[in-house]
Write a structure and sequence with these properties.
By secondary structure, the chain is an alpha+beta fold. Helix content is 19%, strand content 39%. It is built from one helix and five strands, in the order βββαββ.
Length: 75
């Protein structure tokens, strides 16, 4: 069964970090939100944080927004 996670992305941060706040993950990224760089870095960070392969993480909604819905596929 797949899981869905709501994520708030903060691009252009000084360092990469992940914080949980009332069921919402706040992910601080160093990449700018240009040419999909922040989305790609988000997928890398979440795969490491959730300990799943990168291919199991999919952005379902919010490709161009700071708030995104992420689907974590079962392996």
């Amino acid at each position: 069964m797949n899981r869905y996670i709501e994520v708030k992305v903060i691009p252009r941060a000084k360092r990469i970090s992940v914080k949980e706040d009332n069921g919402l993950l706040q992910v601080y990224l160093t990449s700018p939100p240009v040419d999909d760089k922040a989305n790609l870095q988000l997928m890398d960070v979440l795969s490491e944080y959730l300990d799943v392969p990168r291919r199991c993480i999919k952005i379902v909604r919010g490709h161009k927004n700071r708030t995104k819905l992420i689907e974590v596929l079962e392996i």
